[in-house]
Amino acid sequence: MSAIMRVEKLTKKFGDFTANDSIDFEVKKGEIRAIIGENGAGKTTLMNMLYGLLQPTSGQIYFDEKPVKMHSPADAIANGIGMVHQHFKLSPSLTVYENILLGIEIKKEIKLGKKAVKLPIIDNSTERKKVDELIKKYNFNLDPDTKIRDLSVGARQRVEILKMLYRDVKMLILDEPTAVLIPQEIDELIETIHGLKRMGQTVIIITHKLEEVKRCADTISVMRRGRMIGTVQNDDEATSEKLAEMMVGRPVLLSVIKSGKPVNSEKVLYEVSHLSGKNSEGRMVVNDVSFKIHENEILGVAGIEGNGQTELMYLLTGLMKPAGGSVKINGQEVLQMYPDQLRKNGLGIVPEDRYLQGLCLSMPVSSNLIAGYHGQEKFCHHGIMDKKSIRKNMDKLVDEYDIRLSKDDPEVSQLSGGNGQKVIIAREFSSDPSVLLMSQPTRGVDVGATAFIYKNILRMRDENKAILLISSELSEVKSLADRIIVFHNGEIVGEFIADEVSFYELGLYMSGAKSMRDPA
Amino acid sequence: MLTTTKERICNILNKLIPLFLAFLVGAIFALIIGFNPFDVYARIIKGGFFSTNNLMMTLGFACPIIMTGIATAFSFKAGVWNIGIEGQLYIGAYAAALVGGGYYGISSLGLPSYIHIPLAILTGALFAALYALIPALLKALLNVNVVVSTMMLNYIATGLTNFMCKAIHQGDQSYDSTYAVMDTAILPKLDSRFRVTYAIFIAIAIVVVITFILKRTKFGYEVNAIGRQLEFAEATGMRVKKKIIILFLVSGVIAGIAGATEVLGVNKNFTPGMSGDPGLGWEGYFVAVLANNNPIAVFIIAIIFGGFRYGSISAQSQIGMPLDLLNIIKATMILFYAIRYFKPESRIFNIFGTKKTAAALSDSKEEAEQNV
Hints:
Chain A contains 17 helices and 24 strands. By secondary structure, chain A is α/β, with parallel strands linked by helices. Chain A folds into two domains: 3-248, P-loop containing nucleotide triphosphate hydrolases (Rossmann fold), CATH 3.40.50; 264-510, P-loop containing nucleotide triphosphate hydrolases (Rossmann fold, 3-Layer(aba) Sandwich), CATH 3.40.50. A six-stranded mixed sheet of chain A has the order 6-9-10-3-11-12, sandwiched between helices. Chain A has a six-stranded mixed sheet with strand order 18-21-22-15-23-24, with helices on both faces. Chain A is elongated. The two termini of chain A are 43 Å apart. Chain B folds into two domains: 1-33 and 326-372, no CATH class; 62-321, Orthogonal Bundle (ABC transporter involved in vitamin B12 uptake, BtuC).
C-alpha cells in the first residue's frame, strides 16, 4: 500500500519553545494509525498543522504524493483531510442533516429558460436525501431528522464524522475521540472506525489511552516531548507496558546525584488520610487517598496524566472542595484552608499550570516573587506594602536562583519558560516551608533549568523538608523520589521504594493492568 | 529598550487617533446641521479652558465626573464591570437631599453646618454603598453577571427616586423635586460666581487615596492581580469574593459622595433629571475607559470632559450649537477607542528592525501553552 500522507522534518516553534521537533512520519492508505503520547507531547500541535490550524515553522507535508500548504481547515478539507475535535462543533437546535450541510447548504433552483438560477432558499428535501444516503452507505445508526440536542454524545460524534465524510475527505483525524465517551459508546466508536477502514478511509486517532489503541489501531506512533519516538505494528509484541514505556521515556535524561542522606522515618511532616474529591460533574476524581511523607523524603506520584493527579493537587492546595478526609502538616489539620493560610502554615506550592496559577504574566517579576506571601509581615505592614523589602527580595532571589532578566524588573510574560518556573521555585523554596508540593516542575523547561531545579529539589530534601512530586515524566519521578505511589483512576494502586522498582513494573500499575487494590 | 519605545509610541498613537476621529465625526455632524466645525470647536475649547473664570466653571462640572470616574475605574481595575455608578449616584443624591432638605424632623433639630453637611454627605454615601451591595452579593453568592445586574439597578434607582420624589417627598416647586436643601446643609462654593464647590477638595482627596490604595497597599496589589488573572489570584489565596464586595462598597461610597455633593452644593434640591444626559455616572464610565482606569489619568480626563461640558454650554449660548453634538463626540470617542490601531508587532515598525517584540513573544507563548 502506498503512503497517503508523508511529513518531512516538520517543526513548529512557539517563541523559543519547540512544540514539534523535526517530525518525520508517513501514513499508509487505508490504515488505522494511532498517535499516542502524553499531554504536552505535541500530538495536537502536529494534527493542527495537518489540519491547517497552525502553519509549520519549517518542514513539508505531502498528501497523495503532492506537497501541500494549508492555511485553514477549509484548505485541509479541500485537500481531503478532515478532523473531528474532542469538543464537537455542532448546533444543538438544528437537525442532523442541517448540521452536516451547515456552510455548504444545497439551494433550491428554478429554471429560467435554459438557465438554472439558485434561490436563496435551502432545499431541505434534497439535503435530507443526500444525508440519508450517506448514513446508509456507512451504516451509521442515525436519523437525519433528529435534533442534535436529543442525541447521545456517541451519536453526536458520528454526526461529526459524517460531516467530514460528506465533504469527501480521504483521511480522517480523530482528536481524543474517546475522552468524552462512556465504555459502551467506545465499543460503538471502534466498530465505526473499523467500518470506515472497510470503506477505504484512512483514520488517524490521537489519544493517550492505550487500551483503546490496542483494540483498534493497525500501527501506533509514539510522541514524546515534541519528537516522534517511533512507530510500531500493533501486534502481540506491542504490549501496553511497552507503549507506556515509550510514552513516558525510560532513559534518565539527566543524571541525578542523591546525597544518600537517609529518610527520617520517625518524623511524619505531611499526612493525608482518606482524602476524596468530586469534580464539577459529581464524579469521584480523587478516591480515598492516604499517604504520609517523612522528613528528608521525596514522595513521587506516578501515573498517566488525567488520573486524578491534577485534582489531588487542587485539593491539597485549597483550590477544590474536598468530599472528605484530612490533611495534616506537622500534625496540624490544614484541609479547607486558603492557599495563603497554607503557605503561612509551612506549605510551599509549585502548581501544575505555571502561567495560570503560578505566575501573573502581566505583573512584574518583583510582584510575582511575593505572591501568596504578600500579606506576611516581611512584605506588608498594616496593609501597606514594603517596597524596599519587595525590591530586596527580588534582588536576592534573582541572584540566588539565577533568574535571567532582560531588563530591570520586567513583566513575567517576557521570561522564558525555564526562567518563569525559576521565579516560582525561588518564591516557594525561599519561604522555608516544611512541606513542598510540586506538580510538573520541569514541564516545558529547558535542560539547563531542569538540572538546576532538580538540584534545588534535592537540596530542599536534605534540608529536612517533606516533598510531594507529581510528574508525568516517569524518569523524573523515579530518579528524584525516595518512594513512589502510582495513581490510576483517582486511586493509589501501588506504592514502591523508588530504587527497588523497574519502569516495567511501574508501567503495569500506571496502565491499570496491575493494582494493589485487587489481589488478583 | 527598542520594545519599550515602540510600546510607548503605540500607546500615544492609540490614544490620539480616537480623539482625532471622534472630532472628525463631530465635524461632519456639525456641517450637517449648518455649523462651521472649526468655529464650534474653537468656542468649546476657549469656553472650557481659556480663562481663570472659565476654568473655575469647568472644575465645577468636572468635580462629580472625577468622582464617578474614580468609582468606575476602581471596580474596573479588578475586572469587575460595575456600570452601576449612575444608579448609586442617584440613591446617594436622593438620600443626601432628604437629610439636607430637613425631612423626617431633621429640620427641627437645628443642626449646625459642620454637622449637617457631613451628615448629609455620609448618609448619601451610606445609602449608595448599600445599593451597591445588592449587585455585590448577587455576584459573590450567585455569580450573577455584574454588567446585567448593575445596568438594571440603574433603571431601578432612577425610577425609584423619581417615584419617591413625585409621590412622597414632593417639595414646593412647580416641577418634581424635593424641598430645597436647608441653608445649614449647603456645601459652600469656593467663589459664589462659579460652579465649583468645596467638593473639589473631596474629589482630589479621593484621587489621592485611591491612587495610594492601588499603588502601595496589599489591597491594591490584590485588586491588580484579580483584574489581571483571576486563577492566579485564587491560587495565591486572595479572597476574591470578599474583595469584590469591598470594591463594590467603595465604589458605592464614592458614587454616593458624588451625588450628595452635587445636590448639596450645586443643585440645592433633588430632581429626577439631576444627573443630566448622559448622566454623571456614564460620564465617569467614559472617563475611566479613556483613562485606562488610572486614577491620575481619570482626574485629568475628567477635567477635560468638564471643560467640554462647560465649553459647549457657552457655545450653545453664543451660536446656538446643540449640546448633543458633544455627546456624539464623546460616544464616538469611546467607540474609536475600542480599536487598537497600532500594535508593537505591527509591520509598520519593521522599519525599526525585525526583532520580535516581547508582547508578540508572550502571545505566541500563550498560544504554545494552549496548543501543546
